[in-house]
Amino acid sequence: MAKYSSHRLVDRPKASSLKPIRQALPFLKPYSGRLILALCCLTLVAASALGMPIAAHYVIDFGFSNDQVQSIGRYFFTLMVLSFVYAMFSALRFYYVMWTGELAVADIRSKVYAYIVKMSHTFYEVARTDR
User: Fold this and answer.
1) How many CA within 13 A on the CB side of residue 46?
2) What mean pLDDT is predicted for residues 16-26?
3) Rounded to whole angstroms, how far apart are CA atoms 81 and 68?
4) Does 99 map to a domain?
5) What is the CA radius of gyration of the chain?
6) What is the pTM of this model?
7) What is the number of domains present in the chain?
């Protein structure tokens, strides 16, 4: 991954471990139910996305043929239902992931604030903030 530093592109070295992600897991654990719901929504979105080309195939191949004129409505209805499922569960997945992330960040902030408040007054006298 690249980032900009002093107006030129600099490659960032690859991370050597997943330790920073593992440190966030205790903050995500209380919200595991929401993450499971997000995973279920993701599964339904993937299934509906995989079904859309098949439904479009039936609309094109069988819906417009002279033999089965009455079936075009059924094929379009299936395509619309799959589109609706895709849209609804994509929105729900996004909602659950964002909601869980915001709750976890709020927990991290609370823990950091509690740590800072408990620090001794001498730390604030010695530590410089002008660097």
Assistant:
1) 6
2) 86
3) 21
4) yes
5) 25
6) 0.71
7) 1
Residue 93 is assigned to a structural domain of this protein: yes
Q: Are 48 and 89 in contact (CB under 8 A)?
A: yes
Strand 2-5 to strand 8-11: parallel, antiparallel, or no bridges (unpaired)?
antiparallel
Tokens 């609706």 belong to 84
pLDDT value at 13 more than 60: yes
Bridge partner list, 8: 5
Confidence tier at 16 by pLDDT (50, 70, 90)? confident
**Containing structural domain, residue 44:** 31-121
Residue 20 corresponds to which amino acid? P
Q: Which residues fall within 8 angstroms of residue 55, CB to CB, at 6 or more apart?
A: 75, 78, 79, 82
The first and second tokens of residue 87, run together, are 């849209």
Instruction: Flag whether 82 is in a domain.
Output: yes
State pLDDT tens for residues 89-100: 999 999 999 999
**What's the token pair of residue 88?**
């609804």
Assess if residue 5 is contained within a domain.
Answer: no
